[in-house]
Amino acid sequence: MADYCGFVSLIQHVEVRSAAGRKLLQNTEFCVDPSIISLELTNTQRVISLLGDDANKKSINTLYQLFSDTKDIENTLLGLCNSKIMNDIELFEIKQFAFNAKKILEIILQMLDNKLFDCKYEIDFAISDFDEVIKILDPENTCVPTFYIYSAYSKTLQSLREQERQNKNEHELSVIQVRIFEIEQQIREELSRRLKQYSAKFLNALKTVAYIDLLFAK
Question: All domains of the chain, ordered by start, with CATH?
Answer without folding.
Answer: 4-145+198-217 (1.10.1420)
